[in-house]
């Protein structure tokens, strides 16, 4: 698959069809095809990206740098090749809030992440300057989710959330929850100072 992608448009989708499909769809995969009605629609929103760089390793694996491009919905899957091919539909994000609200997402996220970094030095510090260099609030949100959300189920739920404002609210709750856990952990260890709680 990777060889074909690199020779062509360099675009592919990342998802787990086995986890995304219901029981009937799994049975259909063994028969050689999926039908739209056999797949749970909500679970078939996936991300597509373009391969910006690829380094092949001696053991046959590869390291990739992939730039996310869009959310798409899988309409059907063909299994004629050694890897599945999908018919997809572009799913645009819903930016249904005011411009001021949308523009405020970036500084609010950066502030929340900065507070989290002060509590946990093990988090990637380079995330802040990277986010600061992004212009669009949705890009800032999605990069922050990809970099900081360690819960796979939540990350998939956020991927499937088309509304930017809803995605933002859910992720903010996650950041607040992580902050509260870190503060509690520090309290239990007796390693908490006033700066750690002033923004709580």
Report on the structure:
This protein has about 200 residues and is of the alpha+beta class. It is built from 9 helices and 4 strands. It folds into 2 domains: about 1-90, Archaeosine Trna-guanine Transglycosylase, Chain: A, domain 4, CATH 2.30.130.40; about 100-195, Up-down Bundle (Methane Monooxygenase Hydroxylase, Chain G, domain 1). It starts with a helix and ends with a helix.
Which CATH class of the largest domain applies here?
Answer: Mainly Alpha
Class by SSE composition = alpha+beta
Q: Determine the strand fraction and express it as a percent band.
A: 15-25%
Total strands: 4
* Low-confidence runs of at least 5 consecutive residues: 22-42
Main sheet: which strands, in order across? 1-2-3-4
Radius of gyration: 20 Å
**Discrete helix count:** 9
Query: What is the mean pLDDT?
Result: 81
CATH architecture of the largest domain: Up-down Bundle
How many structural domains in the coordinates? 2
**What is the H/E order?**
HEHHEEEHHHHHH
What fold name stands as the CATH topology of the largest domain? Methane Monooxygenase Hydroxylase, Chain G, domain 1
Categorize the overall geometry: globular
In whole angstroms, the N-to-C terminal distance is 47 Å
Q: Short summary of the structure?
A:
With about 200 residues, the chain is of the alpha+beta class. The longest helix is centred in the last third of the chain and has 26 residues, at about 165-190.
């Amino acid at each position: 698959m990777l060889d074909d992608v690199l020779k062509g448009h360099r675009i592919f989708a990342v998802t787990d069809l086995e986890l995304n499909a219901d029981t009937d769809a799994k049975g259909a995969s063994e028969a050689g095809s999926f039908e739209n009605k056999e797949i749970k629609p909500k679970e078939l929103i996936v991300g597509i990206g373009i391969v910006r760089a690829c380094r092949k390793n001696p053991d046959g694996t590869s390291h990739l740098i992939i730039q996310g491009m869009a959310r798409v919905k899988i309409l059907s899957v063909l299994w004629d090749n050694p890897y599945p091919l999908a018919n997809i539909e572009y799913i645009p994000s819903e930016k249904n809030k005011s411009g001021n609200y949308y523009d405020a997402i970036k500084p609010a996220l950066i502030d929340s992440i900065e507070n989290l970094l002060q509590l946990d030095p093990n988090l990637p510090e380079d995330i802040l300057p990277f986010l600061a260099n992004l212009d669009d609030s949705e890009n800032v949100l999605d990069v922050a989710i990809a970099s900081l959300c360690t819960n796979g189920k939540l990350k998939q739920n956020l991927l499937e959330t088309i509304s930017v404002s809803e995605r933002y609210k859910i992720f903010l709750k996650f950041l607040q929850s992580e902050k509260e856990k870190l503060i509690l952990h520090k309290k239990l260890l007796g390693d908490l100072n006033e700066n750690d709680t002033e923004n709580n």
